[in-house]
Amino acid sequence: MTEPVLAVSGLRAYYRTAAFGIEREVRAVDDISLSIAANEIYGLAGESSSGKTTLIKTIANAIQPPLQVLAGSVVFNFHGQRVDIHGIAPSELAAIRWKHLSYVMQGSMNVLNPVRRVRHSFADFAFRHIGQPMPQFLDTVRNHLQRLHLASDVLDAFPHQLSGGMRQRVTIALATVCRPEFIIADEPTTALDVVVQKGVLAMIHEIQRELGSSILFVTHDMSVHANLADRLGIMYAGRLVEEGRTADVFRAPLHPYTAHLIASLPRLGDSAPKKGLEGAPPNLASPPPGCRFHPRCPRATEICRRETPPMAWLAEGHRAACFHPTSEPAT
Amino acid sequence: MSPPLLEVSDVVRTYASGGAFSRRRVTAVDGVSLRLDAERPEIFTIVGESGSGKTTLARMVLGMVTPSAGTIRFQGTDLATIRGKRARLAFMKQVQPIFQNPFEAFNPMKRVDRYLFATARRMAGLAGDKDITEAADRALKSVGLSLAEIRGRFPHELSGGQLQRVAIARALISRPALLVADEPVSMIDASLRASIVNLLRDLRDRLGVAIIYITHDLATAYYISDRILIMRRGSAVESGDARSVLDNPQHPYSQLLKSSVLSPDVPATAGARLRSEPETHEGVIPHA
Amino acid sequence: MGRTILHLLRFNRQFATGVALLAVVAGFSCLSFFSPYPPNDSFVVPPDVPPSWDYPMGTTSRGQDLFWLLSFAIRNTLLFGIVVAVLSRILALAIGLAAGYSGGLLDRALMSLNDTFIVIPLFPILVLFYFVMREHMSWGLLALMMACLGWAYDARLIRSVAMSLRTREFTETGIFSGMSTRQILVEEHLPYVLPIVFSTTMNNINWSIGLEVTLSVLGFTNINTPTIGVLIYWANQHTALVAGIWWWIFFPVLLVVMTFIGLFLLAVSMNEYIDPRSRLGRTGG
Predict the structure, then answer these.
(1) Which of A245, A295, B108, C256, CA to CA, is 20 to 30 A from C194?
(2) Which class in CATH covers the domain with range B6-259?
């Protein structure tokens, strides 16, 4: 079995603030272990205050105080080159970023320089990694854009001259031009209209198949995961509560949270009544003891209140952290 | 026969774009009409993407924006004739908003029960602590909360779902005939959405409140709407009974919308549904 | 509230220094109530005595004990600064909030007024004022004049905050809850506006004291009431520096500099605390 592209082990990252005499510790990422293989789209689902944004910051080593990594490791494997992302020097990190590890953000305007033409953004990010003289570099970029069905005249445009969907496609082209082994996508289509979203997702799917990269695709939108992710991980209150192949998670969820979440999703063409979840996600500064979902769980018992359930392989390639996993398929 | 609850007739709203001397106009809403019956309260959904004008239309119905052309009549009265504090207050008693972001709808530095009490005092015309707290409690109970839970809390102490319910409760205190909900669940977590959407349906059935539900999400629209209006770039594209329109859209844009919606069902081969549509061509927008 | 002030005192050196300086100045000004000599009497002590045990700050050429005289002077100066600041805050708030919230014609009219007041050259106007009023010149009148000239800049700041608040959704919620405009402005918007008001108050006090000292040193105020500026005026009249009576200039200047620095440090250190965004962050939003 080949080594995974990304191996996260026992990761703990908290926000620790002490302002004006009030101390707070927000346990945003609490003991998470997962691995992502090569040529795979791994979907990470989670609602607000699930900790998923903190998790990707930690994986990418984009850590700034008050965020601190307290335990665990994040190890990448780029075609045989092992990299402990927290253990390397800043200069090595800069050499890896974009060439082996790149990102697609939610807002394209967070990435593209609004006062310069698009080709300058490409030059800023990718020029030094590709290592060609400028004219050849621009040709490489143009070829890349053409493969992604983008007209090469976008290079001469300013970002505000492009529509939102177009800009997001350019951002994806930018993130893939160096053919990285690992791409982190953080809600790349959330702010886009439904029609545009579908096109952008199709582009992501196509580029992934072509490059063979792995993508960590983070979004709260379960429909996107259903249609794009190969494997799916569900985060709740800073912990990973379920993980498996997308089809398995959707058709036979093990964790009660996942089961409820999927059952409550509205579908076009289906007007049967849906039931929502009671309560609200816990405050990560003072999470409940034991299983963090127990206050809202219809299956909670005494042990759930006292002990944290460990992640266990309950089916082939499918694991969940629950003392009373559900066995019925989702309705 | 009593006048219709709401009658929107060919409303147009344009904005001047560019600097003070620019002559360019942007048409946010271009001749939209709709009508709500007073006898049968319904959930009327307006669906559109960004730039469709749905929010501008909602604000015109609420009286927050005046139409550039066309009329809006609420219970027979033209909104343009509502001037003066008392008339405006009487109108607001009957028509209340629910905003998209519950954390923005409340002042983060103030307690949320404040708005409930103010509405009870000024909109419902109640006086005396006992009456006011009872009215607030009743409204909160009708949305599945209680005054004991909410009293003294700041917005950040509640979840998005709870806060949106408080917003709905506040809107209900004056017993309005019409609620205008602008994307009420788009900023709420998916697991909490169903209960808010169910609540809206419940309000129509139990309290007889008509609701204008604005959304870009076709799935929730299908779930609770009675009638639907699809908007694009300020114009109405298709309208009618919600299930019929969404099961069988006639207009090409409606069909495009429907086919772009991803359903939360895993296809047999990953990405299968993503490949079926041709790329919609979006080019470079000429610099205006 | 008390806990945060204690925390600020313990950990924020700027705040602690500012408080210490102002405490000294304020404490000193309170001593004026125990002064054995009425402030305007002269030749009650031997003149021109350098600082010594009997006279800690020396005496002036007019035979006044500088220590007690200074306590009156700093008290009057502080009082003047505070009165001007309060009056001009009221004006700035009223005009800024009204203009920012209502928009349209009222906003345009008020801002035209505002622009006029901003460009008025303060110093010539105040000198002119003195020449017109001469014998009827009083501190109260001067305070009023300065308040009327000192509101314009801050009103604009307040207006911009009010304008952004007007478009926020909780203002709409307030309107649909039936709150009156006055209630919205005072209860919803004021907490956002107060940080600006507070920090501009410090600046305003510094500005008005500075202007008062300037005018008094040149003799364009009522020079019979002791203030810091008036003290220095009299010192100059008696050519104190040339005559070697350095303490007559030194101590007033020292005290007013302490006041300036203290107020400045307070304003700067409290800014971070008062800002609504950091407040929300602390309460756990």
Answers:
(1) C256
(2) alpha beta
